[in-house]
UniProtKB/TrEMBL annotation:
GO terms for biological process: tRNA queuosine(34) biosynthetic process. The gene is queE. This is 7-carboxy-7-deazaguanine synthase. Transmembrane segments: none annotated. Pathway: Purine metabolism; 7-cyano-7-deazaguanine biosynthesis.
Length: 222
């Protein structure tokens, strides 16, 4: 039976990439060894025993914290279906693919929900075949974990965060090497920066990609 560590559960609007605008329940899982310097969920990196707490406390929390609850797949899917109205579920992190998500994605789909995974691609993606996989490879990850070829192959869409001109050079190199033309390809400026947005627009034109704006940040929601 799976032991899933959940840092946060909340309902909002998906602000990025193909499902932009979709009301969604976000399940943020605990644990990530990737170590991106600009990560805005650093509180999910470690899963210390002392931070384990109850489901009720996590569901009620409104501020970032390293606390999490542990659930199995069946109970977690049941809880999402019963407590939230959105029909789209986003499993994010942390790095959700550190664990096998086959059972959880299967349970959620069986409840008539649509399921999306957001992953850095550094761990094998183990999900139901109908789960939508958003691969977000990070540039110069301090932990030096490679993005797996199997992650590129499984991805339904690929979304590169871009902060500066050097990121764009690396992204173009990676796209030409790993991304087949059939994949939905997005370039996403970091931190709503005008400079990064201009770089993304220029490169998207060159690569026939799309620009993903973090729309939720412009309207001040999570
Ligand atoms: S992969 Fe995601 S959660 Fe992990 S460090 Fe990078 S941005 Fe943060």
């Amino acid at each position: 039976m799976s032991r899933i560590k959940v840092n946060e559960v909340f309902e909002t609007i998906q602000g990025e990439a193909a499902f932009t605008g979709s009301p969604a329940v976000f399940l943020r899982l605990q644990g990530c060894p990737v170590g991106c310097g600009w990560c805005d969920t650093k509180h999910t990196w470690d899963a210390l025993q002392e931070h384990e707490t109850s489901q009720d406390i996590i569901i009620a929390k409104t501020e970032d914290s390293p606390h999490y609850f542990v659930s199995d797949a069946k109970n977690l899917a049941e809880m999402v279906a019963q407590n939230y109205q959105a029909k789209h579920v986003v499993i994010t992190g942390g790095e959700p693919c550190m664990i096998d998500l086959t059972e959880l994605t299967t349970e959620l789909l069986a409840k008539g929900l649509r399921v999306q995974i957001e992953t850095s691609g550094t761990f094998e993606v183990r999900v139901h075949p109908r789960a939508w996989v958003t691969l977000s490879p990070k540039i110069d990850m301090p932990a030096g974990l490679p993005v797996l070829a199997s992650s590129y192959a499984r991805a339904d869409e690929i979304k590169y965060p871009v902060g500066n001109a050097r990121d764009i050079e690396v992204v173009i190199e990676q796209v030409l090497q790993h991304v087949t033309p059939s994949k939905l390809l997005w370039l996403q400026p970091l931190s709503q920066s005008k400079k990064a947005t201009d770089l993304c627009i220029a490169a998207a034109t060159q690569l026939d990609a799309r620009v993903s704006i973090q729309t939720h940040k412009f309207i001040g929601i999570r």
